[in-house]
């Protein structure tokens, strides 16, 4: 299956999932993330676009806050298809951008080289770690700027079934997939 085929298929399927199921599946994913060894790590998370029924990581984020784990997120630059990293905490004010992504209004910018774990949003990932997102390359550029040993954990609602046939060397693979169980 090509990335475009997977993108269309899994966007269509995700659109059919009820809000209740999105909530339950998100909790399942958050519980698996909470079980990871996170002490002394800096964790980068995405904030969900609710209208697109993305995985809601707030349960995981709140766990990180409670455990004094450093959490950061991104502010997107849609002109250049890049992201800058900003610390995220209880006091961080969030505002939805024009695409519905909650982003920090305030917060200290940090280098992506300081991140140990990146939780990556996905529409789909195959068993080889090939990712399918929305196709703009934001995460490929972002992950390329992170340190070489950053742990890349993809999250979505679907298990891997078919291989992505058109992945390239520019596509940065995830190290681990966490999906709803």
In CATH's first tier, which class applies?
Alpha Beta
Largest sheet: spatial strand order = 6-3-2-1-7-10-11
Q: At the third CATH level, what is the topology name?
A: Rossmann fold
Low-confidence stretches: none
Question: Largest sheet at a glance?
Answer: 7 strands, mixed
Strand segment count:
11
Summed over residues and divided by their number, the pLDDT gives a mean of 94
The N- to C-terminal Cα distance equals: 23 Å
> Could you tell me the strand content as a percent range?
15-25%
Full CATH superfamily name: NagB/RpiA/CoA transferase-like
Q: Rounded to an integer, what's the Rg over CA atoms?
A: 15 Å
Tally of alpha and pi helices = 4
Give descriptors for this structure.
single chain, 181 residues, alpha/beta, Rossmann fold, seven-stranded mixed sheet, two-stranded antiparallel sheet, 4 helices, globular
Give the topology, please.
Blueprint: H1 3-16, H2 19-34, E1 42-44, H3 58-66, E2 70-77, E3 82-88, E4 94-96, E5 102-104, E6 109-110, E7 117-121, E8 124-125, E9 131-132, H4 138-145, E10 151-156, E11 176-179
Parallel strand pairs: 1-2, 1-7, 7-10, 10-11
Antiparallel strand pairs: 2-3, 3-6, 4-5, 8-9
């Amino acid at each position: 299956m090509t990335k475009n085929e997977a993108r269309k298929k899994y966007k269509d399927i995700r659109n059919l999932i009820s809000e209740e199921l999105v909530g339950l599946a998100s909790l399942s994913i958050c519980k698996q993330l909470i079980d990871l060894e996170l002490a002394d790590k800096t964790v980068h998370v995405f904030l969900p676009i609710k209208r697109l029924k993305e995985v809601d990581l707030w349960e995981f984020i709140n766990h990180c806050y409670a455990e004094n784990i450093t959490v950061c997120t991104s502010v997107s630059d849609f002109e250049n298809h890049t992201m800058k990293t900003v610390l995220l905490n209880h006091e961080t004010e969030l505002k939805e951008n024009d695409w519905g992504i909650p982003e920090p209004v305030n917060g200290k910018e940090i280098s992506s080289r300081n991140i140990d774990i990146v939780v990556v949003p996905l529409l789909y990932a195959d068993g080889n770690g090939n990712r399918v997102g929305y196709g703009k390359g934001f995460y490929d550029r972002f992950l390329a700027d992170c340190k070489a040993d950053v742990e890349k954990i993809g999250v979505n609602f679907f298990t891997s079934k078919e291989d992505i046939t058109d992945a390239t060397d520019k596509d940065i693979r995830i190290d681990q997939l966490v999906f709803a169980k």
